[in-house]
Amino acid sequence: MKKTGNEMEFELEGEGHTFCNVLRKELLNDPNVEYAAYRIDHPLVGVPVFYVRTKGKDPIEALIDATNRIRKSTEEFMEKFKKAVSEYRK
Amino acid sequence: MEVKLLEYDDNHVRFVLKGSNPAFANALRRIMIAEVPTLAIDEVVFLENTSILFDEIIAHRLALIPLKVDPEFIDAARHEPSKYEVRFYLDVEAKDSPLVVYSGDLKTDDPHVRPVSDLIPIVKLIPGQKLVLEAYARIGIGRDHAKWSPVSACAYKYMPIINIDHSRCSLCGNCVKYCPRQVLSMEKDRVVIKDPLACTLCKYCETVCPNDAIRVRGDDTTFIFNVESTGSLPPDFIVLEAAKILKEKCETFLKLLKEIREEHT
Fold first, then answer.
1. pTM of this prediction?
2. For chain A, how many structural domains are there in total?
3. Which CATH topology does B2-34+152-226 take?
4. Do residues B162 and B76 lie in contact, with contact meaning Cβ atoms separated by under 8 Å?
């Protein structure tokens, strides 16, 4: 992991496109984030390398906020899906 | 965000997810395919095999038999998968006539686990051939081997938005005739959208329209999900489990981020 001021680069071992892509998208929804991207060098063996650059905000805070938003929408989805299933069964 | 079920039965669920984004929909899809755990035969000990198939072929065929499991069992087993192992045994011999060995011939001591179908053929034996084996089923995920994937078809498409410019439409009926999914129909003086959900966004109607009066595009905030279970787990459980796994991923990542934040201050 590397971190300098408003930039941060880190590896996400054990993850792939599944989590990295939602994280990237969610980071870009933050107006304080200037740039967010990741790369996987090889589809079989590559570990995703994530890169975030902000407009001054601490990148760790930006990541925490983005992850919290994903968690919230996942919880919302679970709740709505459960409700939809019980409504359908009626 | 809104969720509405379109179809739901023992083996599949079709629902509309409204007010989301492709990244989220795709994360759900990927987790359903590759990260929701199930049970599958993982190790086979052959005691006797005089059939025409090699041991490894039979082992592979056994592994691909979907096993029906108690959903609660899967939820509990997810965090310590190595603790769970179900033993199956098989002992068949063709005596006087040829015999097909089916998945239903697999016996187990565990009352909670059984093959989804008893009619999956494993190998055909001729008189005198014998197959005796012991198989061990373990918990795993689709990322390691497709035999552990709980879904067969699992996909989403964008909600179709079909626009018909009635002022340009000459009522030639081409779009109605050529649409492969019969989405459109012709009423007295206009073309109407009969079944928008069936549209696959192939845009063939755009191609055959001589007046450029029809436009089809996808709404990338609304998704039609189609999840088909192999039968091992209920389809709604698979969807919820996938969401749960995504939530856990977030929580693990948050924990790591907070640790890093402390190191840096």
1. 0.91
2. 1
3. Gyrase A; domain 2 (3.30.1360)
4. no
- Both tokens assigned to B64: 């691909």
Residue B254 touches partner A, C-beta closer than 8 Å:
yes
Using only C-alpha atoms, chain B has a radius of gyration, in whole angstroms, of 25
Q: How far apart are the first and last CA of chain A?
A: 52
* CATH H superfamily, domain B38-147: DNA-directed RNA polymerase, insert domain (2.170.120.12)
Do residues B237 and B71 lie in contact, with contact meaning Cβ atoms separated by under 8 Å? yes
Q: Check A84 against B15: CB less than 8 A apart.
A: yes
What is the CATH number for A14? 3.30.1360.10
Taking the CA atoms of B4, B148, A71 and A38 in sequence, report the sign of the dihedral they define: negative
Helix (H, G, I), strand (E, B) or coil at B151: strand
Confidence of residue B122 (pLDDT cuts 50, 70, 90): very high
**CA A8 to CA A52: how far, in whole Å?**
5
pLDDT tens per residue, range B197-233? 999 999 999 999 999 999 999 999 999 999 999 999 9
**DSSP letters along B75-90, please?**
HHHTS-GGG-EEEEEE
Q: Which domain holds residue A24?
A: 2-89
Specify the domain boundaries for CATH 2.170.120.12 within chain B: 38-147
What value of ipTM does the predicted structure carry?
A: 0.94
Q: What SS3 class is residue B235?
A: helix
Among partner residues A12, A18, A80, which is closest to B2 by beta-carbon distance? Answer: A80
B5–A84 CB contact, under 8 Å = yes
User: Do the chains contact at A25 and B236, CB–CB below 8 Å?
Assistant: no
